Request: fold
Amino acid sequence: MIEASAIRRSASAMRTALVGQQTICFSSRKLSGPAPGVGRVIERVERDGREFEFTWDDGLVLHTSLRRSGSWDLYRVGDRWRRKHSDAAALIESEDWVAVCFDAAEVETYRREPIDRHPSRGRVGPDLSDPDVDREIVVEAILHHSDPSTRIREALLDPRVVRGLGNVYAAEALWATRLSPWARVGDIARSDLIMLVNYASRILNEHLNALGDDGFVNLVPFEVYGRNGHVCNRCGDSIEVTNTPPDNRPLYWCPKCQTRLDWRLLDDTPPGGAQPS
Reply:
């Protein structure tokens, strides 16, 4: 039986190595559910006893339940494994690391966000990771949002409005269009929404299609996501990160050049008198 201390160290090591990293390969011989996509970014690694969960930026969660002898091992890319490759129940590879699960009783994926019906359209939003998606539907969904005071970042992460985008690419699209993550959807012009949705679709599909013909993943660098404390490539200020409700997922942005339609710079109190978050 693998000792509890070893399990804790394994979780800590994987959290350090994988959180904020793009997935360049995932495989599992016993997976139940959809596989994480190439280019998606791991946002959380959590452990509860012998239960491990990995959460990607699009809300997909990988859950593994280890047997008494099960383990998650972490290797540098190219290092020799301590066990046979045929014993692996699941594998997650980033640019520098490979996390391998052995002897898992369960390997399954599920979506953390609830998929509810959209009140205005009667169904969930279109999937922006589909290159053939009708982007105008997404623009209209945001433009006619039921709550005009909703922050644009929340709307982009709401599966009732749009699916497939995820936290990483929402941050990248907002940076590219200089929109503040705190901009209210009711304040954004149609032309700005068209630009935002078009860019989000393009950058998302660039990353998800990063696997080249030569079999190597050509990773596209991020401008803000995971770069807290680094210099903004546009204005030279420092990228910042904060956790915001309701999901407390990390929000990355540049406070100097992402100021368009930031209500905090225009008035003292948001709608309803709520305090800024």
Strands lie at 25-28, 42-48, 51-56, 60-76, 88-93, 97-111, 240-244, 249-253. Residues 190-208 form the longest helix (19 residues).
